[in-house]
Amino acid sequence: MTEAILLVGGKGTRLRPLTVHTPKPMVPAAGVPFLTHQLARARAAGVEHIVLATSYLAEVFEPYFGDGSALGLHLEYVTEVEPLGTGGAIRNVASRLHSGPDDPVLIFNGDILTGLDIRALVDTHRTSGADVSLHLTRVEDPRAFGLVPTDDTGRVTAFLEKPQTPEEIVTDQINAGAYVFNRSVIDTIPAGRPVSVERETFPGLLADGAHLQGMVDSTYWLDLGTPQAFVRGSADLVQGRAPSPAVPGRRGDRLVLDGAEVAPDAKLGGGTVVGPAARVGAGAQVDGSTVLDGAVIEPGAVVRDSLIGAGARIGARTVLDGAVIGDGAVVGADNELRGGIRIWCGADIPAGAVRFSSDQ
Hints:
Residues 4-237 form the Nucleotidyl transferase domain. The protein has helices at 34-44, 61-65, 85-92, 118-128, 183-186, 197-207, 227-239, and strands at 3-7, 28-29, 32-33, 49-54, 74-79, 104-109, 112-114, 132-138, 173-182, 212-216, 221-223, 254-256, 261-262, 267-269, 272-274, 279-280, 285-287, 290-291, 296-297, 302-304, 307-308, 313-314, 319-321, 324-325, 330-331, 336-338, 342-343, 348-349, 355-357. It is of the alpha/beta class.
């Protein structure tokens, strides 16, 4: 089966403060680092060798995953000294690949949660005779994405960056962040400088007459680039809406990990995850949220669609709705934080100090 490259070097700026101390692919989703789900799905599709293209906080990955043997994989790590972009990162790890020039190589973005049929993408690549094949998905509002129109055979005809007017929206198909490259195509990417595969490599290949094939797979797909999307993705994994063989424990309305303490009358639902050594106090309500390792939800607090960082503390009767609380932050009792507000790591908000939402 095909070997793969996983692009995990991004800074995760849109996810801050979650990514201040943790690279985006290592932020826990449904109880394990998100990257674990991607690795497990690749292995289930028959992939055995994966090269991780790292950059930001690169030192975190190998101590956790090691050589990959625990997942049935052979993992290697290549670190960019300076960020090289998606195309540059692919080129930078090429020397670690074992494939021959005509062999297919899978490439995944490290922030996409998807139910993609990986084997079907590889099969499409082989049967179409393409140089590069792309996973495409359909979205209702494509203005935030790059459009990828195809002809009747699925062959890509153009790459259109983030259309804004109705006339520019010629398709609802977008680049979904998973590709198959012929190994020889990777060697044509310029080495030693930043390259965007979306803005430079793909349009350049198309202009040179290369065969780029699209495969529309409209199963579950979610870009986890924002805190709200990340929390939703974690909940979808717990509830079984998003597929992964790596979810620890049974799927259901909640996931309470070993070592967590939840009061008997606390109410958990909506795919909530309570991490190891975390505590949820009496009468607290936690819905559709992620409570990371060692965090504390005090009695009577209400937490909805929020992410509580490792070691953070949420005071009694405080209400959080769509909030992101950084690692080690303290939100005192009787506060109310709504509307996507983010509290930085280590911040300390006194009791009763805030009735605030970011959309006010």
